[in-house]
Amino acid sequence: MMPQPQPATSQPQSVAIVGPQYCVPQVLDLAIVRKVMSLTDGSFVVTDAADNILFKVKGHVFSIHDRRVLVDAAGNPLMTLTEKIMSAHDRWQAFRGDSTDPKDLIFTVKRSAMIQLKTKLHVFLSTNTTNGHVCDFRIEGSWSERSCAIYAGESNSIVAQMHKKHSVQSVLLGKDKFMVTVYPNVDYAFIAAIIVILDGINKDDHGGD
User: Rounded to 5 degrees, what are φ and ψ at 61?
Assistant: First the structure.
């Protein structure tokens, strides 16, 4: 059973990670459509409630490691998401634009433990000075049920929450569609990137739900 969101007043004035232009003062519902059978693995489209395209994801299947690029509606690269090779905890890194230079690192995502029955990931911003001891955000829940929540640090304050949208049409078209509610003043480009990384970590259904 998913925890109830805490009041939005518990949130900071703004959680701008990719950019302040992606923080809005009201609740934002994102629709995420993933093509289930696609040669371009990780093919996502992210829209708002009115079906306006906000982001797309371009994936690279035939490479040594998973690499996905989050682009805006005009096709401009916002973030490059890469899987770190030979990482025991399924570590992913997010870089600004189409860069993979360490100086452009925005955040890192990794499993809290190697073996998990449920999804539990920790997010560390590049500005984190705790040497990986205290996370800035964490993700908990069930990826297979599309019911994960994203929390601020180790608190019970939810910044975004996933929920499955069942649709016969989506199933017939070979698409996986679910919704993500982003709470006020939280960077929705950052949340979209987290969802893409969640998919990457769980694409082989290993070590977690």
Answer: -85, -45
